[in-house]
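Next comes this protein:
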Amino acid sequence: MKKSLLYIAALLLISSACSSKQDASASTEQAKEKKEIALQLYSLRDDIQKDYAGTIKKAGEMGFTAVEAAGYGDGKFYGKTPQEFKADIENAGMKVLSSHTTKSLTEKELATKDFSESLKWWDTCIEAHKAAGMEYIVAPWMEVPKTIKDLQTYCEFYNEIGKRCKAQGMKFGYHNHDHEFKKVEDQVMYDYMIENTDPELVFFEMDVYWVVRGSQSPVDYFNKYPGRFKLLHIKDNKELGQSGMVGFDAIFKNTDAAGTEYLVVEVEKYNFTPAESVKLSLDYLLNCPLVKTSYRK
């Protein structure tokens, strides 16, 4: 607890609207304005393995309004049926928003552009996600392709997945790390993906921390590709605001250009216990006057 208080005090000294304009006398334990903010459950991955029900309940008690899953497999979420998972999340006072899952193309599929086998897997996956009440399915990763031809094939594959999601009333997107800012045959991978996927079928969940780690500006991408970033992974090296690397003020001032519909907190490394670090990150957003109550139009 002492560490937490020191961290909070440090945040109040940072010169940014998300901290310095807060009332320094206000405790993070006091009631805050309710804001629509989701939690990527990977943030509590160790806790959820030990105590699934207790961890979900704790996330709801913290003040999160939705979750993004990272535990889909064989038609289930964290070993629960889609219906069970949906009920568990809703019983904790949240909703099921999105999920990270993917299936890579085989070498044969890359060569032939015949996605039929992988799309069978996706059809089952989409069905399970719909039953769980998901609004978004997000591919969290792909390796840097060897050629532009292979990258183009993935763009076409993602368009097909997006088409299937749209038919079921969901949206399909891609989540970046920093390697997407490498070049494939002199073209930036991330830019190529955005420019060669259909905006009606594929959105991008920008992980703002990884964009910065890739030596890029999130806001520049918002302005270059307006409306493409429906979900934002709000992340830092550890707790939000901890590193000073990410210009959160500028990000929150430009969400209209991005096309943002929901903020998703992810914490991968911690100064404290995972639950404590996640709570501090949520408090950072709840206390930030630049973070909207809702990003829904």
The longest strand covers residues 95-100. Confidence is low (pLDDT under 50) at residues 6-15, 20-31.
